[in-house]
Every structure is written in structure tokens, then in C-alpha cells.
Task: inverse folding
């Protein structure tokens, strides 16, 4: 009996060792080295689903109009330009006569209250008179430009009238200038905006639309708004030009 029990225990140990050996063989056989693993493509579904969101924001409805504003401004000062002239058979004689006229113009201007610091001269320039047949010089002409700056622009006529009446000058010209146009230009901009608003409202009403706001305002470039005007007028026009874009929406038709 004792021998049979011992044999059974030995058989059980042998069976257990065999089973353990088989399990270890399967486990180690399942593990591969990193170099033995070959990457493959990821499996893809037969019918993939693609969602694309390409919705653009709705275009805003707008009206673009131009606006124009003009303001009349009084000038800050005036510039008077007078040309004196002298003729003679020699250049010296012509120059001397021209200088004499210039001095007389200065005297008359001083009598009208023109300050010496506001009067300047350009210097004498000479030209010749020639005979058409052979081009020979027959005489000389001397000219000089006298410039007067007058801050009280309403005195221009008072200064010029006695000089013109003396009949000693060749020509004259007066222009008016505006040193600071900022205030007048601001008023012109306001008028331009009001003009644009009026136009936009008329267009919106015709199209059964309602203005909801201002999208943009573009100011037209100004090359020179300090423009002198002719002698007959002492009023300077300061202008402004705008392009205004308004946003609109559909309105309610009027019954």
C-alpha cells in the first residue's frame, strides 16, 4: 500500500511539471522581439463619413453714397502783386525808369498805411525789343515785381485804387489766402455727412430698405484746400468730399 501511494505522488508531480512546461512554452512563444513586428495600415471603414463645414458668413447689405460739403471762409490775408515797368534806348535808362516807378508805388502804398515790412521787391529784370526785319535791338524793357502782404483783406481796393489811377504800372493781381482752414474744414465735413445721409435715406426709401448703421466713411484726398481766389472775390470756398457706406435691411412696405 505504501508503495502505491508513493507511485501516485510521483506520477502527479510528473504530470504537473509537464503541464507547467507546456504553459511556459506557449507563453514565451507568443512574445516576439521588437524587430520581428511589422507595422501594417490602419483598417478603414468601407463607407467613411466625411463632414465638411464651409458655411461663409452672410454678406451684409449696404448702400454707398458720396457726400459733399462746402463752407465759405473769410481769408486771413491778401497778397497784392504789382509789376512796374520802364523802357529806354539803353538798359541803364530802362532800369532807372523802372526803379523810379517802383519808388512811386512804394510811396503811394505807404500813404495808404502799408507797412514797409509788408512790402518787398524782386529786383529789376531786363528784356530787349528787336526789329522784326533783321533782329536788331531797338530798345530795352525793365520790369520789377512789388509784393504787398495785407492782413486786413478788405483794404485791398483802398491800396490798389490810387496806384492804378497813377497809370505807372504794367499790371497788378490780388489773391486771398487762408492760413488755418481747420475750423472751416470741420464744418464742411459735417455738411458732407449730412449730404450723404440725405442721399442714403432717399435711396433706402425708394428700395423699401431701412438704414441700420454706418459701415465705413472714406475721406477723399485733398490736394490743396488753401486756394486763393481772384481779385474780385474775397470769399474762399473750403470743401470736403466723403464716401459713406451704410448697412441696410429690408423694410416694411408703406401701404
Result:
Amino acid at each position: 500500500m505504501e508503495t502505491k501511494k508513493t507511485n501516485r505522488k510521483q506520477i502527479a508531480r510528473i504530470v504537473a511539471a509537464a503541464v507547467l512546461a507546456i504553459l511556459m512554452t506557449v507563453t514565451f512563444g507568443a512574445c516576439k522581439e521588437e524587430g520581428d513586428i511589422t507595422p501594417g495600415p490602419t483598417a478603414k471603414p468601407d463607407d467613411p463619413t466625411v463632414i465638411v463645414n464651409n458655411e461663409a458668413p452672410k454678406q451684409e447689405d449696404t448702400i454707398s453714397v458720396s457726400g459733399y460739403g462746402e463752407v465759405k471762409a473769410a481769408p486771413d490775408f491778401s497778397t497784392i502783386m504789382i509789376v512796374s515797368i520802364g523802357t529806354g534806348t539803353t538798359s541803364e535808362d530802362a532800369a532807372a525808369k523802372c526803379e523810379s516807378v517802383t519808388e512811386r508805388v512804394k510811396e503811394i502804398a505807404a500813404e495808404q498805411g502799408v507797412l514797409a515790412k509788408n512790402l518787398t521787391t524782386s529786383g529789376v529784370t531786363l528784356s530787349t525789343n528787336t526789329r522784326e526785319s533783321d533782329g536788331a535791338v531797338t530798345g530795352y524793357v525793365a520790369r520789377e515785381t512789388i509784393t504787398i502782404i495785407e492782413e486786413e483783406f478788405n483794404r485791398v481796393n483802398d491800396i490798389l485804387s490810387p496806384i492804378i489811377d497813377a497809370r505807372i504800372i504794367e499790371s497788378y493781381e490780388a489773391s486771398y489766402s487762408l492760413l488755418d482752414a481747420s475750423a472751416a474744414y470741420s464744418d464742411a465735413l459735417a455738411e458732407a455727412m449730412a449730404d450723404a445721409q440725405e442721399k442714403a435715406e432717399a435711396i433706402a426709401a425708394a428700395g423699401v430698405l431701412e438704414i441700420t448703421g454706418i459701415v465705413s466713411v472714406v475721406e477723399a484726398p485733398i490736394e490743396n484746400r488753401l486756394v486763393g481766389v481772384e481779385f474780385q472775390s474775397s470769399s474762399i470756398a473750403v470743401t470736403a468730399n466723403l464716401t459713406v457706406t451704410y448697412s441696410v435691411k429690408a423694410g416694411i412696405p408703406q401701404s
